[in-house]
Amino acid sequence: MRALPIAAAAVLALANPSIAFAQDAADIPPSEVETSLSQLSEKLSDPAFQDQAAAMAQVLLGTVLEMPIGPMAEALDKATGGQGPDIDPDARVRDLAPEADELPEQLSDELPRAMNTMSGMAEGFELMLPALRDMAKRMKGALDEARVR
Fold first, then answer.
1. 113: which residues sit within 8 A by CB, 6+ positions away?
2. Pair 104, 62: CB distance under 8 Å
3. Whose CB among 103, 110, 126, 136 lies 3.0–4.6 Å from 37's, allowing a Cys bridge?
4. 108, 55 in Cβ contact below 8 A?
5. pLDDT digit string, tens, across residues 11-66
6. What is the DSSP letter of 90?
7. End-to-end distance of the chain based on CA atoms, in angstroms?
8. 97: left (phi over 0), alpha (psi -120 to 50) or beta
9. Whole-angstrom Cα distance, residue 77 to residue 73?
10. C-alpha radius of gyration, the chain, whole number
11. What would the pLDDT profile of 79-112 be if each residue is shown by its tens digit?
């Protein structure tokens, strides 16, 4: 019985941005979107861009792992009246999750494959664009008609 209200809430949460998208998407010139999707697909599948993004992601994640966590733990402890976690004031994120030491390199290794997948998705979206535009126009018409009532 709880599934129905949860499903209804999910549909409403998804529908709200979809309505705004439908109103805007019907007015975007097809050539602009298709060109953008094509450029995005090309960029995501470019090995040099993938290497650059992978290196940047590795550095960023490594930096996050070095971020001091002690001050946040102290603030949480104060905010909860001494009920916060007992963490060394000099602790870093890496200290709380030592298994994360390998994450920057793993991300760097996996990111090119993920970017190739996203490139393929952009190509697929480009192929779906005519049907999505038609749906957006129908939704806009239905919304306009519903407002008139």
1. none
2. yes
3. 126
4. yes
5. 445 445 544 554 455 566 667 777 888 888 898 899 999 999 999 999 999 999 99
6. T
7. 33
8. beta
9. 6
10. 23
11. 988 887 888 889 998 998 888 889 899 988 999 9
Looking up tokens 């090309």 gives 42
The pLDDT assigned to 60 comes to 92
Tell me the two tokens of residue 140: 């806009």
Distance CA 66, CA 96 (A): 11
Per DSSP, the residues of 25-83 read HTTS-HHHHHHHHHHHHHHHH-HHHHHHHHHHHHHHHHHHHTSB-HHHHHHHHHHTTS-
> What is the per-residue pLDDT for 2?
43
The Cα–Cα gap between 5 and 2 comes to 6
Residue 128 dihedral angles phi and psi, to the nearest 5°:
-80, -10
Residue 92, helix vs strand vs coil: strand
Tokens representing residue 129 in the block: 């664009």
